[in-house]
Specification:
Shape: globular
Largest sheet: 7 strands, mixed
CATH class of the largest domain: Alpha Beta
Strand content: 25-35%
Radius of gyration: 22 Å
Distance between the termini: 36 Å
CATH topology of the largest domain: FAD/NAD(P)-binding domain
Number of helices: 12
Length: about 450
């Protein structure tokens, strides 16, 4: 396991600009930069990044009685992107924030995950969420709709100017009782400075805050796989309308698809396009939807299911994008004095296992608990670091090993063609053992979750 150590001086540096290629679901903006307004007061917490992790963190801290403001690089927030999964261990906190009814309106309560070989032979299925014994459901939900919901709650609860847009972190300086944070408007180059007792970098896998803390760290590293993502409108979904489907081998060719509400099916296809090994990712030009589809379809020509036309589903997509599958090496610590990291800025991980956003929400809970116990101080950030850094690293490493999909890999590598009996390759007890190892590694324990005291 590779690790990095933080830059150890009063930190003031310029970070490289993050680019984020996403796709619009619709053209409605739910926030523009007209709300930007400077403020020189020393607040409790400044959060860099208005993604899911940053917004949940801000809402939690506000509910706990702390003053908080979010600064976001983008000038406009739109309901963009694709789908995500919220695991029960984070949905618990979302329910405590009072979001249950709204989540039910914009997402799907996932009931089952079903696994198939690349040629469509059924392997096994497992229950998810409440059906699996958790006290809370798992949600499949559109990223943009969830972000929009959280922005509305920020405006209603924290205030109209609680999110500042067009503000990219470029430097910060530690003072005795606070941190000074410099921002630049990427379009106008106008500089502004904000003051807070602590800075939380929740600004994604290409985090500017992380770049300042770790100036010699390499860019996000690629594993040789390309990831296609798309959304398709269907008149009718499959099975109970709440089932996730996994097909193929995560080491070579793999497809996942599941409903996310409004008759939308989210699909993800991962193809090993280069030799395995971690390296700097290639430049991937932004092509239109049809170019992406025509590049992908020949690579999955033999992947099929009896109950669903996989190729028609993909070729009928409203939008498609292609990305390199990347993560970063784990860190030995996230916190330096009055600055820390959260979410993908702290622990970016491969999409296998669907834990990225859920882990960011767990970060938000731990940070709030630490502030309650120690106040808004460097000591509280260190306590948060101790709670979360090592624990989240297990998810990063588990995703690299495809642990949640290991059974698909085992079956495909032993007998890539069709087979008659599953038991010739793997027994039910071996399947259960593989699932148990993944859940244990990622600390999925239903009883422990139920006994955890509520944050609010």
């Amino acid at each position: 396991m590779s690790t990095s150590k933080a830059n150890s001086a009063n930190t003031s540096a310029t970070a490289s600009e993050e680019s984020n290629s996403t796709s619009n679901v619709n053209s409605d903006n739910f926030m523009t930069n007209e709300v930007n307004k400077g403020n020189s007061e020393i607040i409790d917490v400044l959060v860099a990044g208005a993604g899911i992790g940053g917004l949940i963190t801000a809402l939690c801290l506000h509910r706990a009685g702390f003053t908080v403001r979010v600064y976001e690089q983008a000038h406009i927030l739109k309901p963009i992107g694709f789908a995500m999964n919220l695991q029960p261990y984070c949905v618990k906190l979302l329910y405590e924030l009072g979001l249950k009814d709204e989540l039910d309106k914009i997402g799907i309560r996932t009931s089952t995950a079903a696994y198939y070989s690349r040629n469509g032979q059924f392997i096994y299925k497992e229950s998810r969420g409440i059906d699996a014994g958790y006290g809370w459901p798992q949600y499949s939900i559109h990223h943009g709709y969830l972000q929009e919901l959280l922005v509305h709650h920020m405006h209603d609860e924290v205030g109209k100017f609680s999110i500042q847009l067009g503000q990219k972190v470029v430097a910060f300086r530690m003072q005795q009782n606070h941190v000074e944070v410099d921002f630049v408007n990427p379009d106008t180059d106008q500089l502004t400075t904000a003051l807070a007792k602590v800075l939380v970098g929740a600004d994604g896998i290409k985090s500017a805050v992380r770049k300042i803390l770790y100036p010699t760290e390499s860019p996000p590293l690629w594993n040789g796989c390309s990831l296609w993502r798309g959304l398709t409108q269907m008149d009718k979904t499959f099975f109970d309308g709440r089932t996730m489907i996994y097909l193929g081998n995560p080491n070579e060719r793999f497809i996942a698809f599941y409903p996310i509400g409004n008759n939308l099916i989210n699909w993800v296809c991962v193809i090993q396009t280069e030799e395995p090994g971690r390296r700097v990712p290639p430049e991937m030009p932004d092509c239109d939807t049809m170019v992406h589809i025509q590049n992908l379809l020949p690579l999955i020509s033999d992947m099929k299911l009896d109950f669903l036309d996989v190729h028609h589903l993909i070729s009928s997509s409203l939008i498609v994008r292609c990305y390199p599958v990347t993560d970063r090496d784990t860190l030995v610590q996230w916190t330096h004095d009055r600055v820390t990291l959260l979410g993908d800025a702290a622990h970016p991980m491969y999409p296998y296992g669907s834990n990225g956003a859920s882990q960011a929400i767990v970060d938000a809970r731990a940070l709030t608990l630490s502030f309650r116990e120690h106040g808004v101080t460097p000591k509280s950030l260190k306590a948060y670091d101790n709670l979360r850094c090592e624990a989240s690293n297990s998810f990063v490493l588990s995703a690299r090993e495809h642990s949640s999909l290991k059974i698909l890999q085992i079956i495909d590598e032993h007998l890539p063609s069709s087979f008659w009996r599953l038991s010739d390759i793997i027994s039910e007890s071996e399947i259960d053992a593989e699932l148990s190892k993944h859940k244990q590694a990622c600390d999925w324990n239903a009883q422990q979750l139920k006994q955890e005291p509520p944050l609010f």
